[in-house]
Fold these 2 entries.
Entry 1:
Amino acid sequence: MSELHTFLFEGLPVRGVLVRLTESWQELLRRREAGGGFEEPVRRLLGEMSAATVLMQSNIKFNGAVVLQIFGDGPVKLAVTEAQPDLSFRSTAKVIGEIPSTDSGSLPLEVLVNNHGKGRCAITLDPKDRQPGQQPYQGVVSLSHVDGGLLNDLGEVLEQYMRKSEQLDAKLILAANDEIAAGLLIQRMPIEGEANLAGTDRVSTTEEELDEAYNRIATLAASLKREELLTLDAQTILHRLFWEEDLRYFEPKAGPTGPRFACTCSRERVAEMLRSLGQEEIDSIVAEQGQVEIGCDFCGEHYHFDPIDAAGLFTSEADTPPGSSSLQ
Ligand SMILES: [Zn+2]
């Protein structure tokens, strides 16, 4: 079952989240398989993006979608994952060009999305009740290290983003195969208003001691091997890494409250998109193909509009015959 575990380091301004996407991730791949699927290195990248986006969504107080996009400068032109506040997520990629073959199954970002150093990673927070004219918040980071040199690990790219946008140190370890997409996020929290410092006897903790504690925890987190993240259950991973630390666990989120695959597409949204193309364009598609057929890149759902449905797009709401949304 897909699950999300949140925990605090008792007495320290450091928190952690561990996510394991299993059947939800497999469902995402299965749906995509019907439309041709992705090559293995792209599946791994999307798996890491899915785990990372669910982690980031769970880690912020924000009522809206978290969208992670990579604008690629390589065979992968675009890779995108969206996670909703209820931890449902969806991912897709647009691949144009040859993915080099590899024995290990994965390829560095440089090869997939950053051939000439122009790849970009964007994190968008899109509020649920966005007012007309209100722009979603977007942060963009390059796929290069601040000191120069290309970043080949998505975790490091996002650590850089969090340091830049939130001024908070973080450690992010990601891994994916066809069975599971998983991630561990350790994040330092701002001291002020930090609830988990209250009620402990470490009142005299200095900034230096806190730095030291965070660095120790980050080093432990960084020692996690991808193979362990993919094969061990959450309790075993956290115990192996942090058995000397004092951890406080929160109720894990799994099942109906846990991460799951879900798509936000609908016949109505597709109809809206078709309307925006204009009647002339739609008429010419119908004349050429006898109908309009749109497939969702995220979930593989197909939406058909026969000539009557297509004509109905441009009549007023009241004139639309009932039952035209039977395919939804
Ligand atoms: Zn869909």
Entry 2:
Amino acid sequence: MSQIYRIMKNEQYQPYMVERYILMFGEEKTLELLRSFQKPPVPSINVNTCNISIKALKERLEAKHFHLEPVPWCSTGFWIYDAHEYEKKMNPGMVSQFQFSPGATHEYLQGMYSMQGASSMLPPVLLDPKPDDDVLDMAAAPGTKFVQMGQMMKNRGVLVGVERSLDRVPALKANVQRCGVTNSILICNDSRHIGEQFNGFGKILLDAPCTGEGLIGSDPTRKNSRSVGDIQTMRDIQVQLLENAVALLKPSGRMVYSTCSLAPEENEFVIDKVIQNHKNLAVVEPPKEIAKHFDQGLVQTMGAKFDPSLKNAIRVYPYHHPTRPEGFFAAIIEKMEKI
Ligand SMILES: C[S@@+](CC[C@H](N)C(=O)[O-])C[C@H]1O[C@@H](n2cnc3c(N)ncnc32)[C@H](O)[C@@H]1O
């Protein structure tokens, strides 16, 4: 316990955060979590296979002294290292000192890949949009998952992206243009209130706005910029967004709900609350070859009990892989035609 409190003090965590981790995960996992937040994540890229093959991009990046290592849960995802450092076999968890940034190559600017966290690749992989699907992304900016879905759809079908913040639309637009996502429609609106203009969607991604506790390792300001009150505020918005996602999802349709928060209030609680209102919804099992890398969703925590299907959700903790993925939550929700 003293080690936990030493890290809490030295790293300037708000006590409520650490106390909650101990309640949710126990002391051993809390210590592991806090230690892994101290290590910066290894950057990763997602190859835009609409613009270049994986083999050709690897050759081009290797010629620029990058080394790529596959992300096991995403066939187009790779961790990217400076090749010289990688060869020296330094601590694989440490961040490479690049000669130049992988976000400033010709290949990046030509839309051959995106810089994307390895955890953030999960929701599109779980939603699995296919060419000719009709897909809605309800919280789209800055667009990494939107672009990933466009490339999975091979730029066919319809991909609608909605973003409420006008300030964040230019980044979304720039990513869509850079990567050439030609099957896309972008709308600046509040996804809690959209609906009448659409006929429903077969697949929906709700990568919900959240407190972002899972990002503490890459953005330490998250330790102090949020409060317990923010968790409650976000939870209420998330429930409203998910309720509208249910209304927009066609019968037999699937959606993925995800956040970069570890708080059950923003994850299991939100889904449980909405499932209670709709008997035709359930959290379904993710593919085993993906789930095996992570923890299951919580079915009870801090005195609350959730729908048993929530065990099918995925919880990503930063200690799940030596590359230090960011903390993340994702769940596939299915809308059954009949109950
Ligand atoms: C977690 S970020 C999404 C990241 C994005 N999916 C990606 O992969 O690049 C959440 C986004 O939702 C937007 N947002 C927040 N409330 C919203 C609402 N009511 N309707 C639509 N978008 C919203 C935020 O401005 C933010 O850009």
